[in-house]
Amino acid sequence: MKAYPLEVLSNVQVSERYWHMKVDSTIIDESITAGQFFNIKCGEGELPFLRRPFSIYRINREEKTIEFLYLVKGSGTVQMTKFVPGENIDVFGPLGVGFSLKEEWDSILLLARGVGIATLAALAQEAAEKNVKCVAILSARSNNDLLAAETLQGFGATVVKVTEEDGTSNVENVQRLVNQLFEEHDIKAAFTCGSMRLSRLMQRSAEKRGIPGQIALEEHMGCAVGVCYACVCDVRGPHGINSVRVCKEGPVFDLEKVVLT
Amino acid sequence: MKAYPLEVLSNVQVSERYWHMKVDSTIIDESITAGQFFNIKCGEGELPFLRRPFSIYRINREEKTIEFLYLVKGSGTVQMTKFVPGENIDVFGPLGVGFSLKEEWDSILLLARGVGIATLAALAQEAAEKNVKCVAILSARSNNDLLAAETLQGFGATVVKVTEEDGTSNVENVQRLVNQLFEEHDIKAAFTCGSMRLSRLMQRSAEKRGIPGQIALEEHMGCAVGVCYACVCDVRGPHGINSVRVCKEGPVFDLEKVVLT
Amino acid sequence: MTKNLKLDVKIGSLHMKNPVMPASGAFGFEMASLFDFNELGALVPKSITKYPRGGNDTPRVCEVTGGMINSIGIQSKGLPYYMEHIIPEYAKYDVPLIASISADSIEEFAEMSEIIGKDPAVSAIELNISCPNLEGDGKAFGMDGDLSFELIQKVKGVTDQPLIAKLTPNVTSIQEIAIACEEAGADGLNVANTILAMAIDIHTRKPKIGNVMGGISGPAIKPIIVRMIHQVRNVSTLPIIGCGGIMNSDDAIEMILAGASAVQVGTANFINPLSMIEVLEGIKEYMVEYNISDINNLVGKVNIPSSTTTLY
Amino acid sequence: MTKNLKLDVKIGSLHMKNPVMPASGAFGFEMASLFDFNELGALVPKSITKYPRGGNDTPRVCEVTGGMINSIGIQSKGLPYYMEHIIPEYAKYDVPLIASISADSIEEFAEMSEIIGKDPAVSAIELNISCPNLEGDGKAFGMDGDLSFELIQKVKGVTDQPLIAKLTPNVTSIQEIAIACEEAGADGLNVANTILAMAIDIHTRKPKIGNVMGGISGPAIKPIIVRMIHQVRNVSTLPIIGCGGIMNSDDAIEMILAGASAVQVGTANFINPLSMIEVLEGIKEYMVEYNISDINNLVGKVNIPSSTTTLY
Ligand SMILES: Cc1cc2nc3c(=O)[nH]c(=O)nc-3n(C[C@H](O)[C@H](O)[C@H](O)COP(=O)(O)OP(=O)(O)OC[C@H]3O[C@@H](n4cnc5c(N)ncnc54)[C@H](O)[C@@H]3O)c2cc1C
Ligand SMILES: Cc1cc2nc3c(=O)[nH]c(=O)nc-3n(C[C@H](O)[C@H](O)[C@H](O)COP(=O)(O)OP(=O)(O)OC[C@H]3O[C@@H](n4cnc5c(N)ncnc54)[C@H](O)[C@@H]3O)c2cc1C
Ligand SMILES: Cc1cc2nc3c(=O)[nH]c(=O)nc-3n(C[C@H](O)[C@H](O)[C@H](O)COP(=O)(O)O)c2cc1C
Ligand SMILES: Cc1cc2nc3c(=O)[nH]c(=O)nc-3n(C[C@H](O)[C@H](O)[C@H](O)COP(=O)(O)O)c2cc1C
Ligand code: FES
Ligand code: FES
């Protein structure tokens, strides 16, 4: 990890609330894995004060670029929309521990909500590269927010969309879909990101079937490198519950071990 | 006075340290006089925190524009260089009391240093409009900083330049010039801005000859409208020395009354 | 819809039609052409001293991250001028006038309050107890609970006007001072004045303020003031005026949720002369959005999780 | 040219080759890959407690204008783990290690200092007296001069290590606490810890920090800290470590001019991981520019105009 000056190649609005940014990652000579994140300085001056953490949405190893998909939320992400191609931005990372696809997982289910889709997209990409069959349930407020579905489909993933707009995103329906897809596709591992409610659902469902899985968590951060203990969450360990750092031991954790509140 | 959203028409670097900005003043329906100033919001967000005061450099009544000439000094003026044509900026004013040219003053001498030239330029323009003969001594570090000389010459002013670069800006030489120009042009009133040292010189010289005059002062400001008493200076009044507000009673004061420190 | 909003708040017998007013020293009738003063909840002129005062050396203000430092030194024309020229100027408006007083001793506070209190144009007195006690050790009255008690009690004895104690945030325990003021009979508490600060120009090596130190105001201090409002609210039943760093209606609502019944806007006026009007409009919009009919129902309504330790 | 600069500073018997070090809690060996720790004047790990502690509810940090609020709650693995695993990790570097201690009682401070003080890898102890006194009223030790005196004196009796008292800025008179610490035998003063603050999300109406209140750090507090350094410098001869809001070398130099012999950089590390190195480089450049050969000649060299009133 390092604070890299990366050149913005493109930064465009892709839907009402989402933006997509591609940066040149040639100078990063460390390995980057799906599920890791970068802490981005969103403005040149003092505003916003802290960096903002973003997962990697796509890693293009040949063309040496990485991509981010971000939701415009507050001051930091509003500033980010002002990045222009050609500009060098200050991107700190790669940070944390990403997903790990075990050899035996030949068929995986992803359950993502909202901007959690950005995080799981990189995993779908990796699955495609490793010829792992990938099925994804993507949940969002509206179809407009589900633009990343095509990216996942591009990677060969089977995508099921649920939204408030269509009245399909309620817990019951998602539970039904999860059960159905677990069966239909002989799922070996489950992954989730973006919603506490859906994560609990996935945790229970996977546990019932004895299926392993991983979850990517979000927490407000200070240092993003593990020194300040701002970003903790609880995980079950051999000796009881441990408080661990999302930025350092995570953001990806074993689904079965995380204490979801 | 009011906080007007004014459209930037141009904003360009005119020399190493100076920038020139023209804004559309159509929506200002108050009268604006030379020596008055505007308090400009230099950035959209919270930085810089305070507004920055700038004199009017030129008033173009027909085309309904006003111009500023500014020295890039710190955070505020650095931000101002980022204003682009078409952008609306937040300009508060017109503020304070400007110069007043009396009928009988048919020949005036200006002595300006550095960015003080910006302030006196508007006066030279008014003099030209009123057919008043105008002679100016402009002092600066380098000839590069004396770009406004041409503007004054454009108004028909006789301009004498002195600089550190040429070794001509020392007090003795300026004193000699002031004496000489007072005589040569039968000066009726003296004006100065931009340097304490030169202001004292002008004050003494004018006093000796019994010539009236005016001076434009600068002081760090809070409100710029007279409520906070941040910007005071001392002037001699009928009952002794009074503390008055540069933003409200000034920035232009009678040269003979100001207590220069 | 905004027609039915109840925005009026009370501080003792002082009745304001809405909770938004200027902070002393950052407001004056020079602003009268900028907006209609009748829109405000109250008018608060600059603190007045008994005798004329020249104020401090310039520069009197400097900019810092998220705010400014000022050390004006309460430049003032003295009480007689104030009574004759300043009060009548504000009396023209149909809005209660809160007179702010600074004094060097408790006796002077009482003396001035008695005189000002008799003016029918005045609706309340704000005691700027953040100013130094020249007869004591030079520390502000408001840094000492006993002195604050004595000061308020003395003033209470000479006037029937509602009394607002303007606290200084430069203390170990603002709660202690708040309790002392309440016990002494204050009708309201202003939380708070500026925080003592200093900035140095590293090139000239001189302080950026002529008087070396000054008070910091602006958004940089808001989280400290919000904390103090919450602390005071927990120990006192007096209405609180929140003051320090309000730039917009979100900031004002934050202070109201922390426990303020009204707010004062200072430095923001320098940056946006319409700040106070916009703060008021924003509060109304928030009330409509969240279906709050009476502003008083928002006061102190921050949701504190029950599990919280009380130690910080 | 920078070769001949004298940058070394002393705090009691603690000798540092330069005045730049991290602030406790904003530094750790997870940063070792980012720059060479051997470049620093000292290493300061996160404060340690006697027993393991879980820390506070999340969110533990939030952003405010010009800074952040944190309430971590000193999550710690306890003293034995610290002695066995953390100290040895820092002992690898050729830079003095300053161990920061937090404790709930004076006895615990003494007990921990005695144990830590015996470790040859430790070069000084920083006593975080800003933490609450659980046996007393819950206020921080550093809010009370007598308690601060007692605490430092007790610790002084059990170890020969140089002692740095890390003061809390949440006090009426930082001078009083500084004097108490000096009289009790402290070797240096850290001015200061974070300022107690609070922020509320006006939409959820919940505090933005799980623990309701927390400490504000970052540039927003710098002018308050600079003022306190200057105040402490006027009453104490102890070396001061300036801490609070340093983002770059200009800020560090400002604190040195105000009276600090050394500086700690905290929050800035989160924004620019190379902050400390850049602060050090900037100090050197300033010394070259102004022809200062020994950093100690800059300490407290702010130019105070003689006419200044001493009352603020
Ligand atoms: C490991 C990780 C990966 C993430 N990946 C993505 C991504 O790929 N795309 C995306 O759009 N968002 C992602 N997020 C969330 C993203 O960091 C926040 O939306 C963003 O910080 C909001 O900043 P803001 O200034 O726009 O919003 P504000 O709400 O104004 O932010 C205020 C403060 O809260 C913090 N904050 C707010 N929301 C979050 C959050 N969900 N997680 C952590 N801190 C938060 C901000 O960092 C900032 O300090 C990720 C978060 C984490 C922790
Ligand atoms: C009435 C008046 C008219 C002015 N007219 C012009 C003009 O036409 N062109 C021009 O280039 N400059 C003019 N100035 C000076 C100009 O205001 C400052 O150069 C500018 O504020 C510097 O801002 P900064 O952020 O770039 O510099 P910084 O030095 O970073 O500013 C820091 C703070 O100090 C204040 N400050 C610094 N210098 C001055 C100063 N000389 N006067 C008042 N405040 C200051 C700033 O406003 C700011 O609050 C005028 C000043 C006044 C008072
Ligand atoms: C320039 C200036 C002058 C002030 N003068 C006074 C004063 O005379 N009396 C007083 O009680 N407070 C005075 N204050 C403090 C303000 O009333 C207010 O408490 C403080 O500025 C914090 O609020 P703000 O952040 O909204 O400005 C002054 C503040 C400023 C900036
Ligand atoms: C996340 C965080 C954790 C901190 N933990 C500690 C701590 O354990 N002990 C301590 O003495 N100070 C702690 N502090 C305070 C810092 O050491 C420092 O005093 C403060 O942050 C001000 O400096 P800064 O503005 O440079 O960050 C912490 C600060 C932060 C931001
Ligand atoms: S953000 Fe500092 S430990 Fe995770
Ligand atoms: S700047 Fe406020 S009175 Fe002049």
Describe the structure.
The complex is a heterotetramer, with two copies of chain A (261 residues) and two copies of chain C (312 residues). Chain A is of the alpha/beta class and 261 residues long. Chain A folds into three domains: 2-95, Elongation Factor Tu (Ef-tu), domain 3, CATH 2.40.30.10; 100-215, Nucleotide-binding domain of ferredoxin-NADP reductase (FNR) module (Rossmann fold), CATH 3.40.50; 217-261, Dihydroorotate dehydrogenase B (pyrk subunit), domain 3 (Ribbon). Chain A is built from five helices and 15 strands. Chain A has helices at residues 75-80, 116-129, 148-154, 171-184, 196-209, and strands at residues 2-13, 18-24, 37-40, 52-55, 58-60, 65-71, 88-95, 107-113, 133-140, 158-163, 189-193, 213-216, 232-237, 240-245, 252-254. A seven-stranded antiparallel sheet of chain A has the order 4-3-7-1-2-6-5. In chain A, strands 10-9-8-11-12-15 form a six-stranded mixed sheet, sandwiched between helices. In chain A, strands 13-14 form a two-stranded antiparallel sheet. In chain A, strand 1 (2-13) and strand 2 form a beta hairpin. In chain A, helix 2 runs parallel beside helix 3 (148-154) and helix 4 runs parallel beside helix 5. Chain C is an alpha/beta fold. Chain C has one domain: TIM Barrel, CATH 3.20.20. Chain C contains eight helices and 13 strands. A seven-stranded parallel sheet of chain C has the order 3-13-12-9-8-7-6. Chain C has a four-stranded antiparallel sheet with strand order 4-5-11-10, with no helix packed on it. A two-stranded antiparallel sheet of chain C has the order 1-2. In chain C, strand 4 (61-64) and strand 5 (67-70) form a beta hairpin. The radius of gyration of chain C is 19 Å and the shape is globular. The mean pLDDT of chain C is 95. Classes of the chains: A alpha/beta (261), C alpha/beta (312). Chains C and D meet through strand 10, strand 11, helix 5 and helix 6 of C and strand 10, strand 11, helix 5 and helix 6 of D. Bound molecules: flavin-adenine dinucleotide (2 copies), flavin mononucleotide (FMN) (2 copies) and FE2/S2 (inorganic) cluster (2 copies). One flavin-adenine dinucleotide is lined by residues 37, 48, 50, 52-55, 68-71, 73-77, 115, 118-119, 218-221, 251 of chain B.
